[in-house]
Amino acid sequence: MHDTAPQGEHPGYRLPPEPIPTILDAPxxxxxxxxxxxxxxxxxxxxxxxxxxxxxxxxxxLAGVRLNPRTNMRSRQDHLVSLSIGGLDNATPRPIELPxxxxxxxxxxxxxxxxxxxxxxxxxxxxxxxxxxxxxxxxLALPPLSGAFGIPYRWLPDGxxxxxxxxxxxxxxxxxxxxxxxxxxxxxxxxxxxxxRTYRDLLDGPHSERLFEFYFTGQLWHVALDGTTTPIGAPxxxxxxxxxxxxxxxxxxxxxxxxxxxxxxxxxPLEVDVVDLAGKEVRxxxxxxxxxxxxxxxxxxxxxxxxxxxxxxxxxELVWVEALDEGDPRNPAALRDRLVILSDPDGEPRxxxxxxxxYAGIQWGDDQLAIVYSRWxxxxxxRRIAISPSDPEKPPRLxxxxxxxxxxxxxxxxxxxxxxxxxxxxxxxxxxxAIFLMGEGASPEGSRPxxxxxxxxxxETSRLWRSAEGEYEAxxxxxxxxxxxxxxxxxxxxxxxxxxxxxxxxxxxLQITGFTDPAPQLAGLGRRLITYRRADGVNLxxxxxxxxxxxxxxxxxxxxxxxxxxxxxxxxxDAGQVLDSPYRxxxxxxxxxxxxxxxxxxxxxxxxxPIVGEGDAEPNDSxxxxxxxxxxAAVEAVVNLGVGDRERIAVGGHSYGAxxxxxxxxxxxxxxxxxxxxxxxxxxxxxxxxxQEQRSYWEAADTYHRMSPFTHADRLRAxxxxxxxxxxxxxxxxxxxxxxxxxxLKGHGATVRYVVLPHESHNYRARESVLHxxxxxxxxxxxxxxxxxxxx
Length: 792
Hints:
Helices cover 12% and strands 34% of the residues. It contains ten helices and 47 strands. It is globular. The relative contact order is 0.08.
């Protein structure tokens, strides 16, 4: 173990033992994207973990967004560093010459597949395009892009140009920080209930409001491929812009005052309009107020219209959703949502469909087919309904209804393609009589992905292809209209994921990629899916991994780490389903717990930790009892297999998994040690709900107290390692959670180590931080699970 950093590393940061640093620094596998016409692949080289200095760059937290003020882009983004383009013929892709020091984000193909666009972030954010045939790359002459609201450009549907959102030209310097406060910060409630979840990076005063307007206000441009640029209207807080499929009008969503100090920007007052490419208003669609009174219960939505978007298979038809129950699922109502369509800017909207449950999305097909999804959280119900968008007289048809947590009966997800308008639509079989469904194929023996053909008239399903036994292969894209030529991603326990083309008619295979094992040090590791049963009869499962070459009958039981994350269910049958495959390729990245396999540990990865609430019972009312029962069953399973040593078992998790870890250490004596990363430990600090708990603290105070490890800090006797990012922006897992939990444990004499990672958020990104986290995890487990390293 290296206790000090070698030359060139930051002092105070430590390195884990080999081969962990070598594996972590190996070049990542390229990112592949397929062109809309499905004839070419773009190969993007990915960089490894960023240096700590990048995370330490200036950062502003404004209205729920973290922004780099130097680039006016979202901070903490991953970057691509190289680009090659090739065909689907297994030929070597040709590299594209990129700008020096390439830092690419948001790559997008043009709808006609002739160009690629991306954002290059150097000193500022620039828009570049690649001519695919010429293999050339050039920058478009624009002011610096603004990614404050997300991706800062959109292709026009015909590929003739783009819409781009930039900073306001010549906007000057940002508002200076006042040396003296202008006055007290005052907030007032008028007696109307307005509960909110715990958000971070909100506006907190007049100065932050000015900063928000400065950095988020931008100018929208029409950019032709020849470089001609034309402004679209005046600058504004344009939160969203989307050209209609016919390309001559744009759906704009603009924020307006008053802003809020309690909710993120997406709940600020909103103006929704359709404008032409000169910025002239074609139609005003909606004026929405501040949405700070939406109930915190699940399936609650704003009372007004929402979800504005263009119909994908029509030139310029606008669609949105309206709540029929005032947005509150607690209100009695036979119908919850209405899907509305506006076919003519000068006409009146009409109802497409009224739903008994909450609208959850739509996939457009053509005049005679669209599939509408609805869900209802209380029963975990999903419905799929087929409608005829251009024939309001044709009644809707229920295609399926099931629990969306029932993986065994998941029919698969409908395949899509790009249409002539450049939009994603349902891929139908010839003559439009059927669609294709791609699914995981979960089963008690493990997942085997499949491709099905679903007949829309008869409702019958026929299987076109299924992954072979002993491997895991999933459909990435259907390459032809018949569903007989498919691009798949294949892997096995020993073979890394690679892409291939399958011709189902000819039963031929063409290998497209030849990616090698990124961590050959772990070749031959053991991976098996184990199933076992909880004391009350609920079936459980997990993936058991062992170091390369390990044989239990020869080597005996190992120290073992359980790494888990609880989930809530309404049906014990759903809770016990197997969601993994024994034939997936397992290699660690980032701060993965799987790196412990290199240090002689076994790992039970993802042991099921279901919390079930049947009927009127809420799952969390028996959270502790069920959590303990899950853990007891998992311990017995690994011990009975001869792999786990009962006296040398640790448990760990990230976020809600950290919360689980602390509870298991407080309520059982099953584990010798624990690792809890970026967790929440006092639920009274998240009083308006957390995870899948929708009741407030005042409605279920006893449950909040019983579930909080902080409440039981005096009972925790096992050793625990707490790790937290100093800049954690995840709702509910403020760094204060770990700080106060550490103080409580220390005050009661627990053996605890508390590590705070400078500049890190909820997930750890910097190379120095990740290596240090892994060093801490290895040392902690070595200290308490290995006899030679144990300190009593």
